[in-house]
From TrEMBL, chain A:
<protein>
    <recommendedName>
        <fullName>Circularly permuted ATP-grasp type 2 domain-containing protein</fullName>
    </recommendedName>
</protein>
<dbReference type="InterPro" id="IPR016450">
    <property type="entry name" value="UCP005522"/>
</dbReference>
<dbReference type="InterPro" id="IPR025841">
    <property type="entry name" value="CP_ATPgrasp_2"/>
</dbReference>
<dbReference type="Pfam" id="PF14403">
    <property type="entry name" value="CP_ATPgrasp_2"/>
</dbReference>
<dbReference type="InterPro" id="IPR051680">
    <property type="entry name" value="ATP-dep_Glu-Cys_Ligase-2"/>
</dbReference>
<feature type="domain" description="Circularly permuted ATP-grasp type 2">
    <location>
        <begin position="74"/>
        <end position="450"/>
    </location>
</feature>
From TrEMBL, chain B:
<dbReference type="InterPro" id="IPR007296">
    <property type="entry name" value="DUF403"/>
</dbReference>
<protein>
    <recommendedName>
        <fullName>DUF403 domain-containing protein</fullName>
    </recommendedName>
</protein>
<dbReference type="InterPro" id="IPR051680">
    <property type="entry name" value="ATP-dep_Glu-Cys_Ligase-2"/>
</dbReference>
<dbReference type="Pfam" id="PF04168">
    <property type="entry name" value="Alpha-E"/>
</dbReference>
<feature type="domain" description="DUF403">
    <location>
        <begin position="1"/>
        <end position="312"/>
    </location>
</feature>
């Protein structure tokens, strides 16, 4: 990025000084012989390859089962930094769920004039089939992935929320597992809060939202689109950790008021479905008739309280980029609190004034498609040449409501292993907040790192890597 | 257990076993080709090998004339041949990948490593790969996977479905390997059981790693009757048809115990076992070896279908 290097917040270094939270790690790095490092790096890769954590990248040729590059240099957050994030993330997850209940219920926030109606009801992710139905415990989004970036010692921004089926948590768990296996002494010298309770909490969260017709221990399953999905490894990993079945649509069927799975001992009733497929594929009778991934009749059972679906159909409307700007307002409106975490200032091209500003300042801005994801369909102004910018401007003029723009943030950088030793590389952070009867958050998250010098794109689909993320114990 | 999970475990085991048989057939063909033919030149039983595997026509359509190099490629590397070692190992690995959580890591490691090594073979120049190297690698790989299953898998229903896959496939494959003899000797059926085909019977033993077993079990010279007894009716020999059926029965009994209820599949397996254990070698030759084997393969396939209907299909009962 062309941001002035002096403006980039370096998470390890304060000028020439090492921050206290990184002191041990810096020592560790300096006393590590080069050969040892190379050896450990290949050991890490071997471990990842053997457990089969691969990430499928399609349409680019080559090996479809690739490893996400793993950087061994951990990223550190202090206890007090985390305390604030923890508070802010829980607050946000609660507000997003309150918003969803409201939008599929009485729509108070619209009536109060705090959000334009058309933004919600005309949104493709707004699910008509979910109107008037209150899911168990009033939770629509059971796993909220909050993407955070940092620009200064105390300055964190929420880049976006993920209310549907955020992925990547398996990397959070495996990165830690592999670091502990390779460098046990690091964990003796630093007191690092554990993350391995995640699977237990997820299971508890899912069980807590069992439908009212469920009696006894709820039967939980994970619904996957199948082995060709890029996150299939994660689906099977989570199923294994929780001890629940990993099912595909073809394994389930609806009969009477319930959903059943086909087993070698005949049909078994299913109570909670943690689905990792999109709304539109859930039920061919209700949504896309050509869906082979879903279960015919599922929505009827859901609406009559025979099964819980996590996240609930329709949850996606809360993480839409056009809705994003209103999240701080949701916190105030539903919780009566001031938001702990700030949004990135955002211009909505749907508004004429904003659109004019965006078009005039494209070279400085990042422009995103409202419904895009994964770093596709975006313009990074400072990184683009004139013709690219002009082509993009034409697209914005054609359909302004499709775009939002944000300033190019000087993302913080963390020390990362490179050929010559270590060098600062830009990072973001995705913690995973669980919402059921209670709100739970394990201390940590997935740190993604842009491995190319100067790059701000951390998406694994575009060459980003991952790091273990440490939250220091109090 | 999900029916689909059971299905993947069952087929994972079947494909590993099938890869092993293809390698064994490849070895029979390659060894036969080293023997001088009484009418001059060398023997050529490749057509018999391909016919036994049921892929003669497909091979012919793709390559035309029978040429050893092409046949080796077809049986080992060709992805268009569903029974090639490559196709079987890839299919086994795909099945394993889907049910990773039902497998221990040593089992997954063994299958996944085989898949990676096979890719390495594909990148190697063919002139640097000896046929025996390929067949030995295949056998070793199959033994390793089976050993890992035996040593590390929980003895639950999943284990039994894998065992069923192996036993059903092996019964079919042993029958096919014996049946190569039939094709070799066509059209002179009268040779069957005569002394003329001794060396081929010996080869058949070799292909099943059964020479020693034979020598320990039977005395005197090698006869077709004794070999047929070993490969079809001897309970001590782990690839004999009777052993395979016994094995399938054991697994079906276990599953019935675990689920607390018997099924049609269990009954049909036991019926097959009873019939087979009453058979005598002389009767088999009287009926005709080929006819007997054909009848057996059909019943074995029928058992496989019943297992599929009862356990793997998952239609609500």
């Amino acid at each position: 990025m062309n941001a002035n290097p002096a403006q980039i917040f370096n998470e390890m270094m304060n000028g020439a000084e090492v921050r206290p939270s990184y002191a041990n790690l810096e020592q560790w790095y300096r006393s590590m012989p080069d050969e040892f490092r190379t050896l450990k790096q290949s050991e890490a890769e071997e471990l990842f390859r053997r457990v089969g954590i691969t990430f499928a990248v399609y349409g680019e040729g080559g090996d479809p089962e690739r490893l996400i590059p793993f950087d061994m240099f951990p990223r550190v957050l202090t206890a007090s930094e985390w305390r604030r994030l923890d508070k802010g993330i829980r607050q946000r997850a609660a507000a997003l769920n309150a918003f969803l209940c409201d939008m599929y219920g009485r729509r108070e926030m619209i009536r109060a004039g705090k959000i334009p109606e058309h933004l919600v009801t005309n949104n493709a992710a707004y699910e008509k089939a979910a109107i008037g139905f209150m899911p168990p415990k009033g939770v629509f989004s059971h796993i909220v992935g909050v993407d955070l970036v940092r620009t200064g010692p105390d300055q964190f921004y929420v880049l976006e929320d993920n209310c549907r089926t955020p992925s990547g948590v398996s990397y959070m768990l495996q990165n830690r597992e592999i670091m502990m296996r390779m460098f046990p002494q690091l964990f003796m010298e630093n007191r690092i809060a554990p993350v391995d309770g995640y699977a237990g909490l997820l299971r508890k969260t899912l069980a807590s939202v069992a439908p009212k017709k469920c009696t006894g221990e709820p039967k939980i399953v994970i619904l996957t689109p199948g082995q060709f999905n890029s996150a299939y490894y994660e689906h099977s990993f989570l199923a294994d950790l929780m001890g629940v079945e990993l099912v595909e649509g073809q394994d389930l069927f609806v009969e009477g008021d319930f959903v059943w799975m086909k087993t070698t001992e005949g049909p078994k009733k299913v109570d909670v479905i943690y689905r990792r497929i999109d709304d539109t594929f859930l039920d061919p009778l209700c949504f896309r008739p050509d869906s082979m991934l879903g279960v015919p009749g599922l929505m009827n059972v859901y609406r009559s309280g025979g099964v819980s679906i996590c996240s609930a159909p329709g949850a996606g409307v809360a993480d839409d980029k056009a809705i994003y700007t209103y999240v701080p307002e949701m916190v105030r409106f539903y919780l009566g609190e001031e938001p702990v975490l700030e949004n990135v200032p955002t211009w909505q091209c749907a508004k004429a004034d904003d659109c004019r500003y965006v078009l005039e300042n494209l070279p400085e801005l990042v422009v995103k498609e409202v419904h895009g994801s994964g770093g596709y369909g975006m313009l990074v102004g400072p990184k683009s040449d004139k013709s690219t910018i002009e082509a993009f401007a034409a697209k914005i003029r054609e359909k302004p409501e499709n775009y939002i723009a944000q300033p190019t943030l000087a993302l913080s950088a963390c020390p990362t292993f490179v050929d010559e030793g270590i060098a600062p590389r830009h990072v973001d952070l995705r913690p995973y907040c669980l919402v059921g009867e209670k709100i739970e958050l394990v201390p940590g998250g997935l740190t993604r790192v842009a491995l190319t010098e100067g790059s701000l794109v951390v998406n694994s689909s575009q060459g980003g890597g991952v790091k273990d993320t440490w939250v220091l114990a109090e | 257990m999900l029916s689909r999970t059971a299905d993947h475990l069952y087929w994972l085991a079947r494909y590993m076993e099938r890869a092993e048989t293809t390698a064994r057939l490849l070895e029979v063909g390659a060894r036969t080709a080293l023997l001088p033919d009484p009418s001059g030149g060398y023997r050529n039983d490749w057509e018999a090998v391909l016919r036994a595997k049921g892929t003669y026509q497909q091979f012919h359509d793709k390559y035309g004339e029978l040429n050893q190099r092409d046949i080796e490629t077809w049986l080992f590397f060709d992805a268009e041949n569903p029974a090639s070692v490559l196709s079987c190992i890839n299919a086994a690995r795909e099945n394993a990948r889907v049910v990773r959580t039902a497998l221990t890591s040593p089992v997954w490691d063994a299958i996944n490593t085989a898949y990676q090594e096979l890719k390495q073979f594909q990148r190697t120049e063919r002139s640097k790969l000896m046929t025996s190297e390929l067949t030995e690698w295949t056998l070793r790989t199959c033994f390793l996977v089976r050993g890992c299953i035996l040593a590390t898998q929980l003895r639950n229903d999943g284990y039994d479905f894998m065992g069923l896959g192996t036993s059903i496939e092996r019964a079919d494959n042993t029958a096919r390997l014996i049946d190569v003899k039939y094709y070799v000797l066509l059209p002179s059926l009268s040779y069957v059981g005569s002394g003329l085909d001794q060396s081929q019977w010996a080869l058949l033993l070799q292909s099943m790693t059964a020479q020693r077993a034979f020598n320990w079990t039977y005395t005197g010279e090698i006869t077709a009757q004794k070999i047929a007894h070993l490969l079809i009716l001897n309970r001590k020999f782990p690839r004999s048809l009777l052993s395979c059926v016994q094995w399938a029965c054991d697994h079906l009994d276990n599953i019935a115990d675990i689920y607390g209820t018997g099924t049609r599949a269990q009954e049909s397996a036991h019926q097959l076992l009873t019939d087979l254990s009453r058979a005598e070698v002389d009767d088999i030759f009287e009926e005709g070896l080929h006819e007997f084997l054909g009848r057996f393969m059909a019943r074995n396939a029928g058992l496989a279908n019943t297992i599929h209907d009862v356990y793997l299909h998952g239609i609500p009962a």
